[in-house]
Every structure is written in C-alpha cells, then in structure tokens.
Amino acid sequence: MLFDRYNKRIFNFLRQLTNDSMLAEDLAQNVFLRLIKYRNSYREGNRFQSWIYQMARNVFADHYQSNKNKAGSHIDVEKMSDHISDIEENLEEREQLLHRSLAKLSDEQRELLVLTRFQHLKYEEVAAIMDTTVANIKVKVHRAIGKLREHYFELEKS
Amino acid sequence: MEKEKLESLLIDYIDGNLNDADRATIEQELAQNKSTAKLYRQLKEVMDLMANSKVATPGLSLKQNFEKALQAEISKTESSSSAEAPAKAGKQVFFKPWVLRAAAGVVLVIVGIGIGDQLNKSRQHDLEVAALRKEVEDNKKMMLSMLENQQSASQRVMGATVAYELPKADDEIVNALAKAMDEDPNTNVRLTALEALGKFYQQGHVRIKLIKALSTQKDPVVQIALIRLLVQMKEKQVVNELEKITRDGNVMKAVKDEAHSGILKLS
C-alpha cells in the first residue's frame, strides 16, 4: 500500500527539514491525510513520487507559515543550529556537525540536499517536484553542497 | 579554473557524472594542485556523510493515527454520499468515481492476470515445441552420422533403425536411406534402409525412389524385399518393371519367381 511504501521516506524528508522527529511524524500524518483527501488531484501520467513529495513540501510550507504567523517572526537559523535536537543526540560527532551545517543553509538549499542526497532522488525528479529545469536544479544542488562544505569545516575548526 | 566551476566538476566527479575528457582534466588537476585535492577531500566527506546518513523509522503511532484518520475520512464520505441533500451532491460525485475506479482497477488486475496466464501458457507450449523440435533434430543428426559410418555396418543398421522410428522423414533422411539401400556394401544395411523407406511409403518422394530402385537394385535379397513391399502397397505402375525382371537373364530365379507372383497379385 502507498502508506507502507512512502511513510518512511516522507517521514525522513520532513524530519530532516524540521530537525524534529515528533513534528515530522505529525506532518507526515498530515501528508497522508491530504493524499486521501486530494486523491482526485493526482493526474495520471505524472510520477506518483513527485506528487507525494510535492504534497509533503506543501504541508511543510503550511506549517512553517502558520508558525511564523503565530510567533510573529521567522525561525532563527542560528538558534536552530545551536539547538541540539533529539535527532542529534544519537548521532556520531561528524553527523551532528553535518546537521548543524545543514541548518545554516537556506531553506531551499537544505531542501534540495535532503531530496537529492539524503532521499537519493534524481535531478529529473526534483525538477518535476519543484517545477523547474534539471539544469537549474543541478546548479543549485552543487552550490548548496559547496556552501555545506564551507559551514561544515568552519564548525569543525571552532 | 574558477572556484565554483571547479567545485561543480569535483561534485560531478564524485558522483561519477563526468565524461572521459573532463575526468582526465580533473584527475590531472587533483594530482598537481594540493588545494584542489583538499577541496575534493572535503566535498567527498560531506557528500559521503549525506549519502550514508541514518534513516529513521517513524513511530507506530504514525501508522495507527493514519489508519484512524483514514477510517474517519471513509465514514465521512460514506455518510455524505448517502445524504440526499443536493448541496452535498459535489461530495457524492467525489466519492462515486473512486468506487468505480477501484472496481475498474480490480477488473483490470483480473483481466491482466488472465492475459498473463494465457501468455505464460502459450509461451510454455512454445518452449515444449522447441524442445521437441531440438530432440528430433538431434535424433536426425545422430541417425545421419550413423548411416555414414563407413567403419561399422552394425552402426549403419542402427542408423536405419533409428530412421525407422522417426514419425516423419524429410528429404535429407529419405536421400540418406535411399543411398544406403542402393549403395551400401552390406545387405543387412540395405534391407533395413528399405524397411525404413517402406514405413514412409505414403510420402510421395519415397514412392518414386522405391519404384526407381526396382530397376537399379542388383542385390537379389533386396530385390525380393522390394518387390514384396511394392506389391503390398498395390503399386500397379511397377508391373512393366516386374515383367522386365522376369525376362532378364541375369536375375536370379528366386527374384524372377517373386516378380511373377507380384505380377499375378497386381493384375
């Protein structure tokens, strides 16, 4: 079933975006509810995987938006990267460093890396999800990796 | 090289996405330039870390909550579709195609299984036919090589016997048997070949060969067997040939007697 096939991937995608397992579970839940509700919006011929990731992105964006409105200010990236999340508690030092560096990236860059490097989606698939060209995605992913490297080795030094 | 371009090439290099020319350029650069080598190591480290990052499993509550919510959604759509209020007609339309689609899906799967099964069966049948064909082909090859075995007459007899057991003889087999019947130095081989040919008598070209053999065959044992066979097959057009045999001074008396009795039976 679709839920069994995708729940782990969607959960991990959201977990890496939010850096919070509990929140990721809630959001993943919402993604699958939306799938049921909006199943008619799926157009045949499109890749189902792209569609479900698009749905997950929307759920994440909505959550982010409502949080922003509630808090009245955007999430402080510096604060986020300093905060040791529940994810990081069980990780090795190097992977902790990776997550802190990821938190320093822009939302778009982080999302691109999560999709292409953690979730192993092809550039073509990500281009379909984000409705842009493969070349554009590739350039952006390469830049994001470059930025991530800088953050990672800066953090390592300090 | 500009840093961003170099970085991009290095990432493609790590991903294995470079063509031969670019790969050679990068490898040369890596060998010559220490700072490039360092950049490469650093990029590889973060890329490897991302690729091998641990995958977490969501808690059971995700599935349980999902199933609960799914049930709620289903009962909600069911109740709204059973309600008669025209205002809810939209939802009704929303639900119905879903059921129809599910039903169509089930039908498609069943039809698919049916077609797949049929295809599978016919494929199996084809495979069996192919295996049989190969076996026949192998038998034929073995038989032909036996018939041509110059060293051993018993092998040639065996070959003719194998031919006798074949369900049908093609031109190649008939020619090999006819040749054995006409030219083989051993009487037993000639007789067995004749016997085998007799079995395929219904095939037109076999009859022609046998009738022709009556005028050319010189071995009395084979001649007698041949006459008996042709008479048994009620081959009336051989009467003239039989009469010639009865008049031929070089033919053995036993053969002439057989020819006489053949003429009597056929006319």
Can you walk through the features of this model?
The complex is a heterodimer of chains A (158) and B (267). With 158 residues, chain A is mainly alpha-helical. Chain A has nine helices and no strands. The longest helix of chain A is centred in the middle third of the chain and has 24 residues, at 48-71. Mean pLDDT of chain A is 82; it is low at 72-76. Chain B is elongated, with a radius of gyration of 43 Å. Chain B has twelve helices and no strands. Chain B has 267 residues and is mostly helical. At the A-B interface, helix 1, helix 2, helix 6, helix 7 and helix 9 of A face helix 1, helix 3, helix 4 and helix 5 of B.
Q: What is the typical, i.e. mean, pLDDT of chain A? A: 82
The SS-based structural class of chain A is mainly alpha
Number of helices of chain B: 12
Overall spatial form of chain A: globular
State the helical fraction of chain A. Answer: over 70%
Distance separating the two termini of chain B: 107 Å
The largest pleated sheet of chain A is described as: none
Give helix and strand order of chain B, one letter per element, not per position. Answer: HHHHHHHHHHHH
User: How helical, in percent, are the residues of chain B?
Assistant: over 70%
Oligomer: heterodimer
Query: What is the average of the pLDDT values of chain B?
Result: 81
Poorly predicted spans of chain A: 72-76
Give the overall shape of chain B, derived from the CA principal axes: elongated
Largest interface: A-B, 36 and 32 residues
The secondary-structure class of chain B comes to mainly alpha
